[in-house]
Amino acid sequence: MAIKIYRWLSILFALCIALQVFLAGLAVFSDASHWKDHVSFVRYFSLIPVVMLVLAIIGRAPALRMHSLALIFMIVLMFVTAIFASDIGLFSALHPVIALMLFWRTFDTIRLSKKWTAEPEQA
Predict the structure, then answer these.
(1) Spatial separation of the C-alpha atoms in residues 119 and 49, rounded to whole Å
(2) Helix/strand/coil for 90
(3) 86-105 pLDDT tens trace
(4) Is the pTM of this model over 0.85?
(5) Rounded (5°) CA angle 66-107-111
(6) Are 4 and 117 in contact (CB under 8 A)?
(7) Ranges of H-type helices in 1-123
(8) CA distance 13 to 121
(9) How many whole angstroms separate alpha carbon 7 and alpha carbon 14?
(10) Is 65 exposed, middle or buried (0-12, 13-18, 19+ CB in 10 A)?
C-alpha cells in the first residue's frame, strides 16, 4: 500500500513541477507579477519527496529510497540556486537545468514505482 501511495505522490509531484514551470513562463512571457506565484507555489509541493522517502522506507523499496533522496537533493539545489542567485553568479543559471533534471528524475521514479506495484503473475 505504501508504494501505491508513493506512486500517486510521484505523479502529483510531476504535475506540480509542470505547473511550477508554467508559472515561471507566465512571469517571463506574460506578467512579472507571477513570480510571486512561482515563489510561493513551491512551498506547497517541495516536501512531497520527503513523504515519498518515508513511504519507500515503509514499503521496503531501496531503489525508490535512492530516487527520493535524489529528488530531495535536487530540490535543495533548486532552493540554493534561487536564494543565493546573486552570490553564485553564473551557477544560478543551473536553476532551470536542475528543474529539467528534476522533472526527468520524477518520471523515472514513476516508471520504477510501477514495477514495485505490479501484481505478481498467476502461475
Answers:
(1) 24
(2) helix
(3) 888 888 899 999 999 999 99
(4) yes
(5) 75
(6) yes
(7) 2-29, 35-45, 48-58, 62-83, 85-88, 94-117
(8) 29
(9) 11
(10) middle
Residue-wise pLDDT for 42-83, tens only, equals: 999 999 999 999 999 999 999 999 999 999 999 999 999 999
| R_g (Cα) of the chain, nearest Å | 16
Q: Which residues contact 22 (CB under 8 A, 6 or more apart)?
A: none
Pull the grid cell for residue 58.
515503509
List Cα–Cα distances, 104 to 32, 67, 79, 96, in angstroms. 27, 11, 18, 12
| Cα gap 5→59, rounded to integer Å | 10
Joined grid coordinates for residue 81? 540556486
Q: Say if residue 50 is exposed, middle or buried (CB neighbours under 10 Å; 0-12, 13-18, 19+).
A: middle
Report the Cα–Cα distance between both ends of the chain, in Å, rounded: 23
